[in-house]
Design goal:
Layout lengths: L2 H8 L13 H6 L15 E5 L7 E8 L5 E3 L3 E3 L10 H14 L4 E4 L5 H11 L4 E4 L4 H16 L3 E2 L4 H9 E6 L2 E6 L8 H16 L5 H4 L5
Parallel strand pairs: 1-5, 3-7, 5-6
Antiparallel strand pairs: 1-2, 2-3, 2-4, 8-9
Helix pairs in contact: 5-7, 6-7
Length: about 220
């Protein structure tokens, strides 16, 4: 249990996660640069968190391997120019096309707001073989994704490539409670980006759901 979790759940103190919502040691324990998503793998989900002038647009692919581990690919993080102009949508499309070439039939998941619907519609036309998922970034969905992501990390059921950009975004993410649940937010007073963390959480959630769970017979090793 992390310090902010102990304060919240044990001491009933309503606090923001002053430390990272994801424990740094647990995240480091999940690092495996040798673990990768095979080219052409089925069931790959590319989660996206779209930003334009102040936040990044981040894309992270996730895949559940035959052993049940969630494998993350190197993220693609498009940083805003910093001069008041926006990240070019053409760059976002190019990123998605590269993912589609590596993982034909992969799914793309973005929020429909903030240009996400237009991007999904364009991908439907230009990459019709892929699946296109509208993922509303409402508190209930984001809480589920964040808490599920944290559980994958704490139980070491996730592997990541130890990419410094992804690590920076993950460890910059704090927690904001929505009732008894929580989601990822920027730490109070911090200008650090967390977009790749959000994208990874969305991708991991959907990749985990995309694979059918083992039957009761398989769980009990009763199949031949």
């Amino acid at each position: 249990m992390q310090p902010w979790q102990w304060k919240r759940f044990t001491c009933s103190l309503w606090v923001l996660g002053e430390d990272s919502a994801i424990n740094g040691k647990e995240w480091a324990a999940c690092a495996d640069p040798q673990s990768e998503i095979p080219a052409g793998a089925e069931g790959v989900v590319v989660g996206g968190d779209l930003g334009y002038t102040r936040d990044c647009s981040a894309f992270v692919a996730a895949w559940r391997n035959p052993e049940g581990l969630i494998i993350l690919d190197d993220p693609v993080i498009l940083e805003p120019p910093g001069d008041g102009t926006s990240i070019d949508v053409e760059d976002m499309v190019a990123v998605c096309q590269e993912f589609a070439e590596r993982y034909p039939g992969c799914a793309f998941a973005f929020d429909e707001q903030y240009g996400g619907q237009q991007l999904l519609q364009r991908l439907e036309r230009e990459i019709p073989q892929s699946e296109h998922i509208a993922y509303p970034q409402i508190p209930t969905r984001l809480c589920g994704a964040a808490m599920g992501f944290a559980e994958l990390v704490s139980t070491r059921k996730l592997r990541h490539p130890d990419h410094p950009g992804l690590t920076d975004h993950v460890l910059a993410a704090a927690a904001r409670f929505v009732g008894e649940r929580w989601r990822f937010v920027k730490a109070r007073g911090s200008g650090k980006w967390i977009d790749a963390c959000v994208a990874a959480a969305i991708a991991a959630e959907l990749a985990d759901e995309a694979q059918p769970s083992a039957s009761v017979y398989e769980d009990r090793f009763l199949t031949t």
